[in-house]
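Data card: per-record layout.
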Amino acid sequence: DIPISNCLNSGVRRMFVVTQFNSASLNSHIKNTYHFDHFSRGFVEILAAEQTRTSANWFQGTADAVRQSMHHLVNHEFDYILILSGDQLYQMNFEHMARYHIEKEADITIGTIPVTAEEAPAFGIMKVNADGMIERFVEKPDPSVLPEWKSNVSEEYLKEGKEYLASMGIYIFNREALQRLFEEYPDALDFGKEIIPNAIHSGYRVASYEFGGYWTDVGSIRSFFEANMELTKPVPRFNLFDSEHPVYTHPRMLAPSKFYGTVFRQALVAEGCIIHAERIERAVIGIRSRIGAYTVIDHAIVMGNDYFESLEELKDPKHGIPLGIGKHCLIENAIIDKNCRIGDNVIIRGDSSLENKEYPTHCIVDGIVVLKKGAVIPSGSVLG
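The structure for this 384-residue chain is written out next.
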């Protein structure tokens, strides 16, 4: 929803979403959410990985995914193509970036953010000249070579120790440049590791568009967890309440949530929830969540449920543990995926001392206990 919302807020109305592994729920969400009227040329279409005469393999990287999808794109008229990642959290007006791209007469423009020396080895880092053009690019550099990769940044960023420009994984290509690069480097699989460095080496004009707002990658369990916890702060860096940059999603027409004696501190609660918990603190509670009495949830994400159970189903012992979280539970440093059934007196507690491990119903990643979708946890269980 984030990259699509940023596109809609920037006036971009023609979008392809390239999907591959375990994409059924994502494909369904996009299909049910983004509809344009008959009088608009706008669309959001899903391009799933497919076998063709020229490629029998799944997408092998970011560039390979776009290359294999080009036969769909070239049927449309366009001069520039905006390429985004789906696992990032930010609010950005791409119209400003597009204007910058045109002003610089660039073949490629890369969205960049200033980062510190500690952060730099996790990113693609570029050397940018005074005109904003990228002279060199390296993917995830070794810390020992960082001093030679400092770029011209503002005094404000220098004071914060942010002397390096990192790629955000956001690109604008001229149509002809992208097609030519795919022809020149037919075996290149990744934009950051291969296409961009080769383009710079071959003399393409590659510009850096410096972004000054909040941006974070949510491609790992830890980063996804921390980004959600950031949203519960009184003034988060990513503002969900910004009327000028709304986040669009599927309208579900659910009833307001109901609370019974629960104490909330720094929590976000979606619609359709029935909550009897004792305390919910530093937590994000998803749609249709049901949480029993005397339960405490601290520093956790509860994804919610895809459907409600009827009163008859809740009372019928044949149905087993009801959807949601039972009574007298403790959920801490955890992510509860959708449609989980957690009994009474269950403790789920993550901790930094825990080793990464996989179980049938859950896994532990970076000290966070992640309950798998549809997991059933009997009463009295202790996880973590």
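Known properties of this structure: The mean pLDDT is 91. The longest helix spans residues 62-73.

See the next section for split statistics.
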